[in-house]
Amino acid sequence: MINSNNIAVLLNYIKNNKKISNLSLNITRNSISITKVKKNADLIISNKDIIINKNIDLILRQSCEIIIPLLLKNNNNFIGQIGQSLDGKIALNNGSSHYINEKESITYLHCLRSISDGVLVGVNTIIKDNPLLTTRKIKGPNPIRLIIDPTLKLTNKYKIFKDDNKNIIFTNSSKEKKFINTTIVKFPKKNFTQNIYDYLEKTSLQTILIEGGPTTLSHFIELKLLNYMQFIISPTIIGSGIDSVKLKPISDLKNALRAKNTICKLGKEIIVTLDFNS
Questions:
Q1: 75-275 domain in CATH 3.30.2040.10?
Q2: pTM of the entire structure?
Q3: What pLDDT shows up at residue 22?
């Protein structure tokens, strides 16, 4: 059975064997192996079709169907992701966001984190939500946490500094601070986001998940630095609140971003994936 204990192992196996055009896998509780007997395989990837012949929870099945196509790409991936209401809100005007999206979206997000080498957020996400940015909902590897903190206003009180997972903080501040399990990388204000991208491109981190907030995501979108952008959309209308994307105004719809896309179900919600590669 494919479950929360081995889903990350499966996804990372596919990630590490993506150069094989057709995969037929047998999956046990503790191992994954390639089989030549296709008809008896537990999971088959053929011509971008994904066939799962193993018992699997619906949300994990849908997560596989969304994530595996991303894994089969040979390029390094910068993936933007944000959860929102149907009318594009991530929180109320007072900052309350618990909970716009269903709990199933958390499981999906943790699957996505498990195949990511780094997860990047802005400092306001850390201050407002105090997240762990781990894969605790499933049994999987935790990505390196990447935090954009231009003025270096974080302190060691936040959860990301309370465990053994590594952090990198990007800043343009001249302050001298020390954080637990953390490397501080300084860049000038000019071309700050581009410099962060260039830095990450030169590391061994192949897949970077950018979880927000809206300002951070918007900078990456405007600079055309994302390979994919995913919106987890709840069938909820809020009417007012904080927008999921904050791009510069345009005066002509010809300048609107239009990308190749896929739309998939995830429980009661949908995930829209924009593909900026083409």
A1: no
A2: 0.95
A3: 84
